[in-house]
What does this fold into?
Amino acid sequence: MTQISIAPCNGPGAEIGNVDLSQELSEEDFSTIRQAFADHGLIFFRDQNITPEQHIAFAKRWGDININRFFTPVDGYPEIAEVRKEPNQTTNIGGGWHTDHSYDAEPATGSILVARELPPQGGDTMFADMAAAHDALDDETKDKLDGLEAIHSSKHIFGGEAAYRSESDAGERLQNANAADALDDVVHPVVITHPLSGRKILYVNAAFTVGIRGWSQEDSMKLLMPLYAHAAQNRFVTRFEWQPGSIAFWDNRATWHYALNDYQGERRVMHRITLEGCALH
It folds into this structure.
């Protein structure tokens, strides 16, 4: 019988205990973790000591790995993207509410982030629950969102003229600006039905959603900006304090996340594997 523990957070997510991810998981233990991921959309592990090879092996239990277009890979491990901030750099990657890969036609299932080098303090990541955010909308707003589609783009973030590129200390950590410029914008429903939980999910985000299909930019922002403010309320958020050996695995279809940039003058290095996804409905 599995000894794995599941402790729900005060906000979204749950912490998984009594498991060693450096060892191959039994089918029973993996099934328990998989159900926790489906139930919570966000799971955390503490006190893990895994190699890049073990990181990759754990990810492959969940599905195919997405080779990131824009992040510099860890040397020798193209499956692992490096999310790094050096002491002399002032901007960080992911420093705003977003959902990874919403600019893809088949957005990523999730991301598995491993702490490799942490600042003495700061550098927490916040996660927001988009199912809870949708549930808390008033009926009039839910009716208004029904059937709407949103446009998602990577150009303004990762393209050659994007904000990250114009700030040299962030842009040097990214690659393939031409790929972002060449990538077609995509359209997803504003509200999706999650393929695992069956819950309604608010699927727009401030980083990559650039408008509502068929609407003017002005009208789009009048709808989207209040939604962003609503979903970022503390009642929908868990703030995760990284420690050596911490791992976070979030469902990109069910959550937003935000990497806090409050550790100036310190180094922070994280390893991220992202899993391929499917079309959203």
User: Anything to note?
Assistant: The longest strand covers residues 77-85. The mean pLDDT is 92. The radius of gyration is 18 Å. The chain has nine helices and 17 strands.
